Amino acid sequence: MVKKLIAPFQKILIERRLCVGCTHPLDKANKREILDDKRTIVQCKCGRRFILDRELNSYRRATLEEDQEYINKKKKIR
Ligand SMILES: [Zn+2]
User: I need a labelling partner for 23 at 20 to 30 A (CA). Which of 17, 29, 59, 65 fits?
Assistant: First the structure.
């Protein structure tokens, strides 16, 4: 029963540019990496990662592949 409620709630949080885990504003997250000319990956202070689509200027959850891209970029920097 809980599962049915969680998905729409998360969608509302993301639409309001808030982390679905801790409701921290994603615009204030300071860990961000540019993936390509459209997407910026943002990591919340709680560790969840989101994609900022700079064309639409909206957030969504990062896919596993995008998560991996972020991790790979971090490795290159070090
Ligand atoms: Zn968070």
Answer: 65
